[in-house]
Every structure is written in C-alpha cells, then in structure tokens.
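Late entry, written up from scratch paper. The run itself happened at the end of the previous shift, but nothing got recorded in the book at the time, so transcribing now.
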Amino acid sequence: MKNNTLITLLLSVFIALLGIGIIIPVMPVFAAELGAGGFSLGMIIAAFSVTRGLLQPVVGSLSDKWGRKNFLLVGLLIYGIVGLIIPLATSVSHLIWIRAFHGVGSAMIVPIAMAYISLLSPVGYEARYMSYLNIAIFCGIGCGPMIGGLFSDFFGFDSVFYLMALMSFLALVLVVTNMPRRSRSEVKRDRTLLGSIKLMMGSSRTSGILLARYATMIIMVPTMAFLPLLMSSWPEHTGLQIGGVIACRTLVNAVLQIPFGKIADKYNKVILLLAGSLCMSLSVLAIPSMDTVLSITVLYIILGVGEAVIWPVLGGYASEEGRLHYGHGTMMGIFSFTMSGGVLTGAVLAGMSMDLFGIEWAFYTCGAAVMVITLIAARMIFVGETKMAVTVKK
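Output as recorded:
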C-alpha cells in the first residue's frame, strides 16, 4: 500500500507539473501581447503566489485533520479548468484573475504532496524521500517548456493551454483510481494553525529553515518568466530554444536530486545550504551577460546544480520539523507559504527593477537578495541547532 501510494503520488505530481511547465515559455509572451509590461507581468505571477500562499497553511493544517486526498483532487480539477479558460482571456486583468484562481488549485497540490512524502519517509531518510518528489516536480517542469515551446511554434498559444488542461485531468484520474483515502496515521496534533505558527516563530531553527526557503525562491520569477523576454531581444531565437534552456536547468536539478538527497541525510545541511545558494546567486547575477543560446544554457545548468543542493536540504529539514513538532500537513503548508512569499517578492522586485532600470536589473537585484537573506537564515539554523545540541547534552 505504501509503495502504491508513493508511486501514484509521484506520477500524478509529474503529470500535473508537466502541464504547468508547458505554459512557462508561452505565458509571458501571451501576457505581453495583451499589453502587460514588466510590472503587470509581475502582478500576473504575483496573483498566483498570493492566493496560493494565503491558502497553503490553511489547507496544510486542515489536511492533518481531514486527510489529504480530496484536497489533491480539487487542486488538480482547478488546474484543468484554468488550462481551458486562459485562452479566453482578452486583457491583463483577466489573466490576473485567472492566475489567482490557479493559485487556489496550487495550494492543494504540491504542499499536500509534500505532506504525503513527509508522512511516508522513514526517520533519517527525509531528504532522500523529498528528493523523490523533487524529481517528479522538476522532470514535469523541465520537460514541459520544451513541449510547450514546440506546440507554440507549430500550433499556436491556445494549444499549449489546452494541453495543460489535458495533463491535469489525466493526473486527476490517476489520483481518483489509485490513491487510498485517509489513514489514522495521517492525523497529527490538535494544535491550532495559529498555535503552530507561534511555536515556529519561537524556534530559531524552524524560522531559519522557513527564511531560507523564502530566500531561495526569489529567483524563480526572473529566471523563469523574464528569461523569454530577455531572449526575445536576441537576433535569433525560437520558442523551442527558450523551453530548452529552462528544461536544462530543471532536468539537471532532477537528475541530481537523489545523490544530493543522500548527501543531505548524512552531512552538514547548513554548509550545503550555503554552497548551493552561492552557486544560485552567482548564476543569476551572470544571466544578463549572456548573449547566445549556448552560453545561457551552460549557465542554467550551473543554476540547476545549485538548486539540486538546496531542495533536498530544505525539504529534509521541513520533514524533520513536521514529524517532531508541528504535523506534516501544517509544516508543509507553512513551508510552501514561504515559497510563495519568495516568488511574490521576486515578482515585485524583478518587475519594478525592470521598469525602472531595465530587464538586466531584474536579475541583479534578485540574485543579490538571495545571497544576503540566505546568509541570515543559515546563521539562524546554526544557532538553533547549537541550542538543541546543548539541550540534549544536559
């Protein structure tokens, strides 16, 4: 039963995220054709992050009490509906509202999947199990842009969104037919969501983990949504090439998840966190200097390596905290909330930087922010772990 649940979950997440990845190279250009500038593009992305972020802690906490399958089903259904209605948008405001609705569905997919994985992972293997989920996520997002770019080149924008809807409905069928309903082991604690948040804020280790997750998500908007705009200024480019660059980053990330997951379970996570964030920050700062498909592809591969270090480290940390203190769903809901906060910050920061100083500054400001905030977060985690070690000795 455990293996069947794990396989179904990973396959469903892969298919759903494949649908999301499909629209990555298309959405910014589609929005620009409707009149979106840098700030408007940031708001389209931010709308998704706001609704997702606000709902993730609530959904996570409720899933600890009510079970997780129904939340996952509703999320996948919303994903499918969004794919059907995006082509009907005729203005930037339409896209903002649709993406806000999209965020509602997202709040019920990845956080719930993370809670499932956290629940299934044996003690001492948290990072490794999270790496399995990360593989599903990154393979889906990584393969999606190439498919989306190809469909866009040959069949137009609308076909890409309809394909996203098809992928989401397919994942929905898999969950309906193969995922078990809630088990007693899913239920964790009776502590309220606000009580859990208060406890988290009082823990240096937990607060540092959440801050690090927030920081490392700031680069998502410029490196995903703004890259097509940067490359569109080059003399020669295609939708397939844009998708291929993004795919290289995410696929490298996926391939390295299990090796780095094993390393994260055995070695010092704080050092790995600092190394990965340095690699990410330097890569993002160098993006505006690239002017060929080959050079940007190599840089995105390096970026993918840095992220491959970060994701299992932070996922393993969050799984440990959920098991020990807060409940799997509650911890993953808050953890995902900080991810959305990072994406929102990146959207606003990148959009405003682009409008004020040019698109290059969208990358400069976000890359610098990641490093500064991650340094603070790493120190908080170190202090928290030092206190834990002292307590254990006593």
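The mean pLDDT is 83.
(Scratch paper discarded after transcription.)
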